[in-house]
Design goal:
alpha/beta; eight-stranded mixed β-sheet; two-stranded parallel sheet; 9 helices; lipid metabolism; PNPLA_dom; Patatin-like phospholipase family protein; Acyl_Trfase/lysoPLipase; hydrolase
C-alpha cells in the first residue's frame, strides 16, 4: 500500500510557458498514476489556467479539448485587436468561464492560487480569493499579447514577469514539500547561457516560408506569422537558427522566452523547490497550442524520469 510518511502537505507548482503548459497535464497524470496527489496547487500564466482546471476537477475535459485544437481553432479563439495587446483573449476566456460557471477560488476542490504582476509597480500579486476566471485571466495577460486586467484598482499582467515558477506561493500556502514544474529550462535554441548548442538539422534560409496557416483562404500575415523553420515535430528539439528576419510575433515570443528563463533561474536559485521537474520543450513555441499531444507526453515522461527521486524524497513505498 502506498503511504505518505514524510510530508503532511504537498504543494504542486505549475510554471508559465504559454502553449508549453499543456505539458502540465501529462505531469499531473503521471503524479497521480504514482499515487502522488497534491494538497494545494498554484500556478503562473498557463500554469494558473491548468491548475485552476485541475483544482476544479476538470482535467479530463481540458485534455480532451486541447487534443482537438488546430492552428485554425487557435486563431479563431484569439481575437485580434490593437488596444492594450495584440490579442484580446475574450473568446478563450469565455470558454473557460462557461466551464467554471461563476465559481470562486474558495469553491474549488483544493486550495489554489494564481500569480499576476502589477503593471505599475512590478509587484507580484497572489490571487487566492474571488473569481477563478478573473484570477486566471490576469495571470495569463502576457504584456503586448493579451490585454491587461483591471483588478482592485491596479492593472495586472502575466505573473511570469515576477514569479514564473511560484515556489514561494506554495510555501505561503503552508506546503511543507513543493513539487515544481518548470517549462522553460531548455527553450533558448538549445543554448544554456554558455553551454553547448543542441545540434539541429540545417534549413535553407532562401526557402520560402511555409504557409501552414491561412485565414479566409489567404496566407497568415507575415508580421503575425507563427514561428518558422522548425525542422522536426519533436517538442524536445529546438528549431534551427534562420537567416530570415523574424516576424513581429516571433520576436515578441523569443523575447518573452529570454525573460522567462532569466527570471525563473534567478527565483529558483533563491527559492528552490524540493522536487523540480523540467520537461524538454525546446522545440515548442509559446503559441504552439495545437501541439498538445507531444507536450502532454513530454510532461508525463519528465515526471516518470524523476519518479525514483520523487519517491525517495516523499518517503513513498
Amino acid at each position: 500500500m502506498i503511504r505518505r510518511r514524510r510530508y503532511s502537505r504537498i504543494g504542486l507548482v505549475l510554471g508559465g510557458g504559454a502553449a508549453r503548459g499543456w505539458a502540465h497535464i501529462g505531469a499531473i497524470r503521471a503524479l497521480h498514476d504514482a499515487g502522488i496527489k497534491p494538497d494545494v496547487v498554484c500556478g503562473t500564466s498557463i500554469g494558473a489556467l491548468v491548475g485552476a482546471v485541475y483544482a476544479n476537477g476538470d482535467l479530463d475535459w481540458l485534455e480532451e479539448w486541447v487534443a482537438r485544437l488546430t492552428w485554425q481553432t487557435v486563431v479563431r479563439l484569439l481575437d485580434l485587436r490593437l488596444s492594450g495587446g495584440l490579442l484580446g483573449g475574450r473568446k478563450v476566456i469565455q470558454l473557460f468561464a462557461d466551464k467554471f460557471n461563476g465559481r470562486s477560488i474558495a469553491q474549488l476542490n483544493m486550495p489554489f492560487a494564481a500569480v499576476a504582476t502589477e503593471l505599475d509597480s512590478g509587484r507580484e500579486s497572489w490571487l487566492q480569493d474571488g473569481s477563478v476566471v478573473d484570477a486566471v485571466r490576469a495571470s495569463i495577460a502576457i504584456p503586448g499579447i493579451f490585454t491587461p486586467v483591471w483588478h482592485n484598482g491596479v492593472w495586472l499582467v502575466d505573473g511570469g514577469l515576477s514569479n514564473p515558477v511560484p515556489v514561494s506561493v506554495a510555501r505561503g500556502m503552508r506546503a511543507d514539500c513543493v513539487i515544481a514544474v518548470d517549462l522553460n529550462n531548455d527553450i533558448l535554441n538549445g543554448r544554456d547561457f554558455g553551454g553547448a548548442v543542441v545540434d539541429t538539422p540545417a534549413i535553407d534560409p532562401s526557402a520560402p516560408p511555409p504557409l501552414a496557416l491561412r485565414r479566409n483562404g489567404k496566407p497568415w500575415p507575415r508580421w503575425l506569422a507563427p514561428a518558422e523553420g522548425r525542422a522536426t515535430d519533436d517538442v524536445r528539439v529546438p528549431p534551427a537558427p534562420s537567416a530570415r528576419v523574424p516576424s513581429m510575433l516571433s520576436s515578441i515570443a523569443q523575447s518573452i522566452d529570454i525573460m522567462q528563463v532569466r527570471i525563473t533561474r534567478s527565483r529558483l536559485a533563491g527559492e528552490p523547490a524540493d522536487i523540480l521537474i523540467q520537461p524538454r520543450l525546446g522545440g515548442m513555441g509559446i503559441f504552439d497550442f495545437h501541439r498538445a499531444a507531444p507536450a502532454i507526453e513530454e510532461g508525463r515522461a519528465a515526471v516518470e524520469h524523476m519518479l525514483p527521486a520523487i519517491r525517495a524524497r516523499l518517503g513513498i513505498d
